[in-house]
Amino acid sequence: MTAANYTDFLTLCRWRSRLATHFLPNFTNTLKVALLGGATTEMLEAPLMLALEAIGLGCRIHRSEYNSFAQEMLDATSATAEFKPEVAIVVSTPANLPSWLTPDDNLERVCQLVDEVCNYWLGLAV
């Protein structure tokens, strides 16, 4: 079956999940992926796993708790750090930013907001 649209792709994901309970393929190369989010990342897990397996890569996924991505990235003893991912996918939303632009912000205001956001994130590491 070829996935021509998102619905078909999700159908393939469900088939893959059912098959995995009976048969686990043995891949030569396995990629360790961390899914970190300020939004729900659960819906990405099955499609990501299927897409990687379709190109011949096994996949181990670590999914952090909802809205814990900053702590997971900054804490050297976090579950994500201990997992030692090779790839990290961060799903963020505007709600995760302390400041947000408006359509009529000028360059000076944009630079100010960028500084605020950078200082916010850098301050979390202290």
Key words describing this protein structure:
alpha/beta; Rossmann fold; 2 domains; 3-stranded parallel β-sheet; 5 helices; 45% helix
Structural class of the helices, strands and pairings? alpha/beta
Reported for the largest beta sheet, the result is: 3 strands, parallel
The average pLDDT value, as a whole number, equals: 87
**CATH superfamily label of the largest domain:** SGNH hydrolase
Spatial strand arrangement across the major sheet: 2-1-3
DSSP strand content? 15-25%
Task: Please provide the ordered H/E string of secondary-structure elements.
Answer: HEHEHHEH
- Counting DSSP E segments of at least 2 residues, the number of strands comes to 3
Low-confidence parts lasting 5 or more residues at pLDDT below 50?
Answer: none
CATH architecture of the largest domain: 3-Layer(aba) Sandwich
State the CATH topology of the largest domain: Rossmann fold
Give the total of domains.
2
* Subunit organisation of the chains: single chain
Rg is 19 Å
- Binned, the helix content reads 40-55%
Shape: elongated
Q: Could you give the distance between the termini?
A: 50 Å
Number of helices: 5
